Automatic annotation (TrEMBL):
One of its GO terms (molecular function) is enzyme regulator activity. One of its GO terms (biological process) is regulation of nitrogen utilization. This is Nitrogen regulatory protein P-II. The modification O-UMP-tyrosine is found at Y51. It comes from Methylorubrum extorquens DSM 13060. Homotrimer.
Amino acid sequence: MKIVMAIIKPFKLEEVRDALTGIGVHGLTVTEVKGYGRQKGHTEIYRGAEYAVSFLPKLKIEVAVAADLVTSVIDAIAGAARTGQIGDGKIFVMPLEKAVRIRTGETDADAL
């Protein structure tokens, strides 16, 4: 089992969710986060004053999947989140040691 974590642009969430549903992944967690990479933020004008925005709004998506689905999940997320512009995001994959469904007590792959 693996956790696939992706940082994406907020307006790409529905496309990513649809892509994951299309390959059979039905559960995900979304968190609003802020950060920067190569973009280094940007400047905005508010009430005539220019100011720097160092941390840009992003979404962090976390999906727990069986190890054999990781490549499909990565391809689905990358394809749906890609705009071709700087700041499209990153995908990270981490091992998942144990999973338990609280309602039924199912564990590991059965809990996913």
